[in-house]
Design brief:
The longest helix has 20 residues, at 75-94. By secondary structure, this protein is of the alpha/beta class. The protein has helices at 41-59, 75-94, 104-112, 119-129, 139-155, and strands at 2-7, 13-21, 24-33, 63-67, 98-102, 163-164. It has one domain: Nucleotidyltransferase, domain 5 (2-Layer Sandwich). 39% of the residues are buried.
Length: 165
């Protein structure tokens, strides 16, 4: 089973693709989608959508796991994040990929063992779980891999399941 994890952001959207095999969880790809900051929002959303469509076409994931928002500094940021999430959900739905959402607390619990884990702890555990030689360079990509790992754990009974969107 393949899962694409996504950490939404209008400036940086992290992604991570993993495969759950008999031997464990393997990282297939991870990185960030970074639209030009000067681009209008509609163009940034198009870039994110197109990049996700390309990743989905390349890896053919069975599921998409998306981090749900929990806090925004201001109303403008909340609207932008909501719109990016809509673009991400649409990319999954158009590709007929089952989409699930997980709160940041649930992701941290699944990966680190406690819901108040620091970013550095998440990065270290993601690298350990996936047997990566070096820590994931980007926090956004690391968070996306963590969301994907959380989803696999929820499906295998290691943690409670996420909300299907």
């Amino acid at each position: 089973m393949k899962v694409i994890g996504v950490d939404p952001g209008s400036r940086v959207t992290g992604y991570g693709i993993i495969e759950f095999q008999d031997a464990g969880i393997v990282a297939l790809d991870h990185g960030c989608i970074k639209p030009p900051p000067s681009a209008p929002l509609s163009k940034r959303y198009t870039i994110i959508f197109d990049a996700l469509q390309e990743l989905i076409a390349r890896y053919a994931p069975d599921h998409m796991a998306v981090e749900a928002p929990f806090y925004c500094k201001n109303v403008s940021s909340a609207f932008k994040l909501s719109q990016v999430r809509g673009v991400i959900l649409l990319a999954g739905a158009k590709a007929h990929v089952e989409v699930y959402e997980y709160s940041p607390r649930r992701v941290k619990q699944a990966v680190v063992g406690r819901g108040a884990a620091a970013k550095r702890q998440i990065q270290a555990m993601v690298s350990q779980i996936l047997s990566l030689e070096a820590p994931v360079a980007s926090e956004d990509a690391g968070d996306a891999l963590a969301v994907a790992i959380c989803h696999v754990h929820s499906l295998t009974g290691a943690h409670s399941s996420g909300r299907r969107t």
